Amino acid sequence: MAMRRSGPALASAAAVGAWIAGASTARAVTYAIDPARSEVRFRIEASKHHVIGRTHGVRGSAVLALGTLSGARTGEAVVDAASLNTGNGVRDRVLRGKLETNRYPELRFKATGFANEHPPAQQGDTWRTVLLGDLTIRGVTRPVALEMAGRWEGNALRAKGSTEFKLTDFGIEPPQFLGFLRVKDRVRVDFEVVVVPGPR
Questions:
Q1: Is 20 contained in some domain?
Q2: pLDDT of residue 2
Q3: Contact 9, 170 (CB under 8 A)
């Protein structure tokens, strides 16, 4: 079950982003999210079914020491709000209207630390942790907690995770689609990101 701190924020997810600052500055390398291998998904419960959407429009960067998460500081992930796709054009337009994507084109997550002691994350080992950060949607920022699992794959870091939050925490009334399909005031965001050396 995804963890939630008082009143959170997407997603990015979407996103996440944020594995950050390696303790060893001698080995510190700038990493960036690879959009081609990364995805942010969201699910909103509705009266008759779930509204599900996704996007590869995620970018971000962090500073890491290869093979470790220790000494982490900050990192950031940004989702292109207009790129969220539910597979239905009418529904997508309603969603973009609710998010006011013309005025607020980005959903932004900024990491602030870990809720627990982060693992050593040796090559090939799967690790789990809870990443804390601030999610900004439509100009409103709320704290969120991302439950994460990941592993180092060569010089790349692959991480999966999720969080949940209420739309009303960000001043957004749950949308109504087609005049009768009303969604509930809770969003689940799942993400899978791959970060690789080099700014993007």
A1: no
A2: 42
A3: yes
pLDDT band at 8 (very low <50, low <70, confident <90, very high): very low
For 46, counting Cβ atoms within 10 Å of its Cβ (0-12 exposed, 13-18 middle, 19+ buried), the class is: middle
Query: What is the CATH number for 189?
Result: 2.40.128.110
Phi-psi region of 137 (alpha: psi -120 to 50; beta: other; left: phi over 0): beta
Strand partners, 5: none
CA distance 56 to 85: 10
Q: How far is CA 192 from the centre of its chain?
A: 9
- How many distinct structural domains can be found in the chain? 1
- Would the CA dihedral through 46, 51, 57, 61 be positive or negative? positive
Residue pair 130/146 in contact by the 8 Å Cβ criterion: yes
- pLDDT digits over 87-123, tens only? 999 889 999 999 999 999 999 999 988 787 655 556 6
Is residue 78 included in any domain, yes or no?
yes
- For residues 74 and 191, the model is more confident at 191
The pLDDT assigned to 188 comes to: 96
Determine if the pTM surpasses 0.90.
Answer: no
Residue 145 exposure: Cα atoms within 13 Å on the Cβ side:
12
In a domain, 39, yes or no: yes
Q: How far is residue 108's CA from residue 86's CA, in Å, rounded to a whole number?
A: 20
